[in-house]
Structures are given as structure tokens and as C-alpha cells.
Amino acid sequence: RPRPPPPAGRLQGSQFHTPRMSAKWRIQADTSKSGWAWDVAGLKFLDDDDEVLHPKAAFSSGYGAPGYEPERAVLEDGLWGGRKSEGEGFFLGAEFEEPVLVHRVCFTDTSYDHHAPAEATLQRLEGGAWQTVREVQPEERGRKRPKARDGAASSWRIYAETSQSGWGWDVQKLEFFDEGGNTLRPKAAFSSGCAGQGFAPEKAVLQGGMWGGRKPENSGLFLGAEFDKPMLVHRVHFTDTSPGHHAPLRVTLQRLDGDLWQDVREVYAEERGSRPLRALEAPRPEKAPAPEECVVPPSQPLQGEVHECCLLRELHPPRSEPFVPDGSFYHAENCEGLWVCVSKSCGEETLTRACDMVRAYIPKHLRALWGQFRSPRWAKDPGPMRLVVLDNRINEQAGIVPELQDGSEGRNGTSCPFVFTSREDFYEGVAGGGWRPKRLTTHEMVHGADMVIRQLVDPVVHDQMENFYGRYREKFQHITPIGTTESAYATANRDEFFAEAVSICRGVMDNEDVYVKCGISTKELLQGEMPDLYTFLAKYFSMP
Question: The domain 287-544: what is its CATH number?
Fold first, then answer.
């Protein structure tokens, strides 16, 4: 492939310098049209093969507000809301692990009066001083993207070295498209690993559901598709906005070339859940069950099919003997029907904290129902629904518990009859404190409670929450300054909407960036925007 010609304006002399390698590069402008701000989106540095160079850090002259830091534009393909420094004007730059030679840059700075129209320069750091290499060319300042490597392949995947949590990545509905925008239909799906049968790669690639991705020790996270014949993928689309499991810094589109995975390009921000939500689909296609088929009859006619945990014919028979936690593995306590089981490695203090949380969040009459819950027949354990806390410090995984003893991975997820969570959530918080304490457990307990309520209180809760989701999910989106739509995890589906709404009301979401930008990050804000939803939630959960 012929290399692109060098950009015009690469001059030598007192002002412009011959390009040399450096570990720090930046774009700089003395002023902007407004004189005080410069908005830059998606700044990329490319080598002379037109390949994107991957920096380790970003820096700038300043920024206007949280959410518009330099990392947004340099590491995440988002927006830097730049502010001017005294003496150096505006600058936005990247630091690399080792010296690199930048051949060209690519970014967008078309935000009205914040545009720097007169002149911007490319600079490198040499001996403690910034040297101007050349002027940035007009074609480098548009929406022009780095070219993808050509080549059809039968296997394609999205890949991330790590995620915000460092071990998980939730991806909803991964789609592949050709140049004409047509959806490509894969024959199989594969991944780096998953949280369990209910979160397998097929769920996201073939069924439009959720992949609960897991990171192996010797690789990054990946989710991919295999096709019947070689395909040329032009773009992808998926949603990966699950708090803490999101891979925020960089996702790469790759194709299999022989036995090697080749980078094609970085995945763009608009391919990661930024397109507007589609209209809510038609009512569920399967017919509603007869009232006598349900564990408890619905309080009003059902709109369609319900979760199998609601149907008598789908359930395990009742236990012949009451459930008793295995004392050789667990510290455990029965919270008036709701068992809290904590691995002994977590310590007794963790059990105390978990029980305090359970009693504060779930009313006593509903805790009693957790003890009566029966799992669907596909589940390995017949019930009851219970909270299980595993130790992140020694990487305990779900399959270690005495009831399973299998290869099940993860310690954050709900799969009948287990609500798994992690010890760190009761101390510093998951993701090294990136989440507020109790954030994970709150979310997963709602999933468990949701099934208990539908089975033993009223199956029509399925429809009621589906209706709230359809009515309010667009409130959990916001338009970014560059015109794309960012969606919170609450928009993923009915179940996640329920869990995120309760989490907001319990006060563990007030620092979640996307919810802050949507204006619904606290109980008071949600209650003001959606009073009927708040009243519904307060029927089933204790509110602070």
C-alpha cells in the first residue's frame, strides 16, 4: 500500500523544525475565535504508515468542567472543552510510553465560537522546550477518520486490553455492517470468557442480548463473530455502558488474518451506543399464560409472556429439607427469610455489613419471600433466592461455592437463585473505588428481588416495569456537545432500567457521569422527573 504524501507546510528554519521522535506531542493554538475556549473532539496521532499511535496519558492547557478533560478527546474519542493558559495559549497533547514520530494528526474542532480558525500547530517536546514541527493542515481538522486496513475475513471481533473494572465488560447487541449499511449475519459467536450461561457471547452477537464478558489472565477482553465466508466489515455497533464494566479508554476492531488478529482501526464513539434509541418493540410475541399457570395469579391481565420463574410448570419442586448454608465455606445469617452467605475468606465483618444493608434496603415481608423462592428447572440449585458475597482479594469465582462446584466465572451477577457480589463493594467500592460502596450489591439485589416479586407477589410487575421503561428510558440519554447521543445503562432493557432506578434512589449513583449529565443522578431528581415510577419503586424497596 503506498504511503500518503507528507503534509504540506513541513518547513525547516528558525520557526519550523524537522520532525524527530519524542514521547510528548501536542496541538497548539495561540487563540480561538472566542478567545477563551477551544473544543476538540477525537484527537489522534498517526505514524507514517497512517496507523494510530496509542498514548498512555493526555494533558492540556486546561478544561472547562468535569466531563471535558483532555483524556476525553485523546484516550476516549470524546470531547475536550479546552481553556486557555497564560503564556502558552491553548494546547492538547499526548504522552507515549516511548518516543514516537508523528506523521499527521486527526481531530474535529468545529464547535461554533470555540473553533480555532486562524492557525494551529503540531509540536513536540525536545529538551524541555516545545518545538513547532509544522502547521496543522485543514484536512486534519475535519471529521476525517484514519483509514481502515482493507481485507475481508471470516472472523471479526472487538477487543479491549482492559476495562474500568479490570476484569469484566458488558456488551449489549453487537452488530456488524457492510459498506452499504446492511447487517451482516454471523453463524457463530466467540469471546474471551463470560460470567455464565446466561451471558454467553451468543446472547449479544446472535440474539440481541447481553454478553457478560470476562478477562482471562493472558489476554484482553474480546467479543466476536464468525461468518460463513469472508466479509468486509465497514462498521460495528454495540452498547457497553454498564457502570464499571465499561471499556472506556480504547476498543479496537480486529479481523483474523491467518492465525493472527490484525488491528483494523479503533472503534468510534458513535459505534458504542450513541445512536438514538429505537421505538419500543411491539408487545411480546408469546401469548400470556393463564392465571392458574402462575405461582400467584396476576392482579390484572398480562400483556404477554412472563419470566419462567413465574410459571409453576417451569419450577423445581420444593426442597424436601430447608436450605442450610455449608458452614465449612460460609459465614451466614438468615435475615428473616433472606439468607446472606459470605465466604469465610471475606470475614465476619463483611457478613455484618451485608446483613445491615439487606435489612435497610428490603422490607421484612419481602425478605421472607426470598426464602420461599423456587428456581426454574434449568438452574442447578432449586432455591431459595440468596445473597452470596465472594472475596475479590483472592479472586474467588462463582463456581467455587459448595452449591455449584463448577467452572462458573464472575462474582457480580444474578442467576437463579444466586445474587453474587464482591467483598470490596462493602468497603472501598468496586473498581478500586471507582464505584461508590454498595453500588454493585444494590444493582444485583434488585435483579434478585425482581424475580422474587414477580414469582410470589404479582407477575404483572413484569408489565408494569416494562411500561415505565418504555415511557421514561429516553430521559436517560443526553446529547453531547459534538451532537452524538450518549445513553445510560438504564436504557439497555427493562431489567437494567429497574436496577438502575433503584440504585439512583438509594444514593449510590450521584457521581455517575452519564446520569449526572442526564439530570437524574439522585432520588430527588428522579422523583421530580418520574413521580409515578418513584411511587412504584417505594412499594418494594425501603427508600432513604
Answer: 3.40.390
